[in-house]
Specification:
Elements (H helix, E strand, L loop, with lengths): L1 H6 L5 E2 L3 E2 L5 H15 L3 E6 L4 H7 L6 H16 L4 E4 L4 E5 L11 E4 L3 H10 L2 E6 L4 H14 L8 E6 L6 H12 L4 E4 L9 H17 L6
Parallel strand pairs: 1-3, 2-3, 3-6, 6-7, 7-8, 8-9
Antiparallel strand pairs: 4-5
Helix pairs in contact: 2-4, 5-6
Length: about 220
């Protein structure tokens, strides 16, 4: 992302997703702040709890407390990004009068990812938005669930990001139709990726992205 930030001007960057409970919160805060500063505020930090206990076991981290840890991490990230001296003591973290220098010039948006009801509740309560993975359940039902939880939290739906990651959707007109339906339903972002499509060369991946870009632009879903 840092390299791409240096050679682009408008391209936005989103991690989709970073398994945050496997990582040191202060280090993530520093790395994200640096990237946001270098890119001129083009980063969205997508985070989630992960699902693979083997990863947690290999890193010496407790798999069973990952949800609670993630909840605490999101709040601590925002405190560290404030630029103020932070004195924080939680269940998993102790920050003794420390600050990021330089701090980011804004609060970096945090989008929550996941498939379970707990993830939807977490996103509505703590996130600036949510990353939905198409192909893992009905994303439009998931969107309705998020909206319901946002209402319960008293949050403004129009200020909440809704990012559709099209993982298993074919390209071409079907992808365009899916994206248009998503935007009509209140979605704010759409991504289409070349992974898991059987490509074996770099050029095949690039061709897919060129074709997808052209399809979305012709449909009026991508700015010039």
């Amino acid at each position: 992302f840092a390299y791409l930030a240096a050679v682009t001007k408008r391209l936005e960057f989103s991690s989709g997703i970073l398994v945050l409970p496997q990582r040191q919160t202060a280090l993530v805060a520093r790395q994200a702040a640096d990237l946001d500063l270098l890119s001129g505020g083009r980063l969205t930090l997508g985070v989630g709890p992960g699902w693979n206990y083997v990863e947690y076991q290999a890193l010496g981290t407790d798999f069973h407390t990952r949800g609670k840890r993630l909840n605490e991490q999101v709040g601590l990230l925002r405190e560290l990004w404030s630029g103020k001296v932070v004195d924080f003591e939680g269940q998993f973290h102790r920050v003794d009068r420390a600050a990021l220098n330089p701090a980011p010039k804004r609060q970096i948006p945090v989008f929550i990812g996941g498939f379970a009801d707990a993830a939807f509740r977490r996103g509505a309560k703590l996130g600036d938005g949510f990353i939905f993975a198409d192909g893992y359940g009905d994303v439009f039902e998931c969107l309705a669930t998020i909206d319901r939880y946002l209402d319960e939290e008293g949050r403004d739906r129009s200020k909440f990001g809704k990012h559709l990651l099209m993982v298993k959707v074919p390209d071409g007109q079907e992808a365009v139709d899916r994206a248009r339906r998503w935007m009509d339903a209140g979605g704010t972002h759409v991504s289409i990726e070349p992974q898991r499509r059987g490509f074996t060369t770099l050029e095949a991946h690039l061709d897919f992205m060129r074709r997808s870009t052209d399809d979305f632009r012709k449909a009026g879903l991508l700015a010039d």
